[in-house]
Amino acid sequence: MRNKFFASALLGAALATTIFVGDQQINAATTTTVRTINTTKKTTVKAPKLVINKQIKGSYTLTGKVTKGANLRFYVVNDNSNKVTKSNATLVGRILNIKTNKFSQKFFSQNAGKTILVSAAKNGVRTRQLVVLAGPATTKKTTTTTSTKPLLKLNTIKAGSTTITGTATPKATVRFYAGKDLITKKIAKADGSFSEELYSSMLGKKVTIKVTYNKKQVTKSITLKKAKATKTTETTTKATTKATTKATSTN
C-alpha cells in the first residue's frame, strides 16, 4: 500500500510540472528552446534604365531608351554647368508613366549648345544624365565651277564697221587685242551680251577677242573689213583723172 501511494505522488508531481506551448504538451523537465524566424526578404529597388541615343544635328531632339513606367523630366541648365541646382535649371518637358521603353523629346533651336539634364524616376529611385544639345549641321560652302569653256559668239560685222558685238558667258571678262596688245576690256552683261566700238584705224586689221570665266578661256579672231568703194566714187575719180589729163595736154 505504501509503495502504491508513493508512485501516485510521483505521478502527481510530474503532471503538476507539465506545460503547453500552443497545442503541444512539453514536460518541464525537458529543456526546449523555441526560436522565431523572420522569413521576410529584403527587396532591392533598381534604378531605372536611361540611355540617350546619338543626336542628329539640327533636329534639336533627344531620343533614347528608358524603363517602362518611369517618369521622365527634361531640364535646361542655364549656365552650362555640370552642377545642377534649382536656381540654374529650368523644367522644359516631362513624360509621366511612360508606356514604352523608348522616348523622344523636342527642344527649341535656341537651346542648341546648352546642357540638358534628363531625369528618369521610378519607385523612388532616380537616374540622371547630362547631355549638350547639338546645334545645326555645318554645311560646307561649295563653289560652282564649270569644266567647260565659257561661251563666245560673235555677230556678223559689216564692212567698214569697227563695232564688235556678240554673246559671252554672263558676267565674263571680254578682252580685245590687236596682236598681243590689249586694246580694251569689259564685263559681259547679265544676259551675256557685249558690244565694243574700236577706232577706225583698226579697219583692215585682225582683232582677237578673249573671254575668261572661272579661270577658263576661249579665244576668237576677226578681221575688220574696209568698206568697198562705190561705183559713183569710181566714176567721179575717173572723170577727174581724164579732165586733169586733157587740161595738161592742152597746155
How would you characterize the overall build of this protein?
There is one protein chain. With 251 residues, the protein is mainly β. It is built from two helices and 16 strands. It has helices at residues 2-16, 231-250; strands at residues 18-21, 24-27, 50-52, 61-66, 71-77, 89-95, 102-106, 115-122, 125-132, 152-154, 163-168, 173-178, 181-187, 193-197, 206-213, 216-223. It has a four-stranded antiparallel sheet, with no helix packed on it. The protein has a four-stranded antiparallel sheet with strand order 13-12-15-16, with no helix packed on it. The mean pLDDT is 81.
What does the secondary structure layout of this molecule look like, with pairings?
Blueprint lengths: L1 H15 L1 E4 L2 E4 L22 E3 L8 E6 L4 E7 L11 E7 L6 E5 L8 E8 L2 E8 L19 E3 L8 E6 L4 E6 L2 E7 L5 E5 L8 E8 L2 E8 L7 H20 L1
Keywords: Signal
Protein name: Bacterial Ig domain-containing protein
InterPro entries: Ig-like_fold
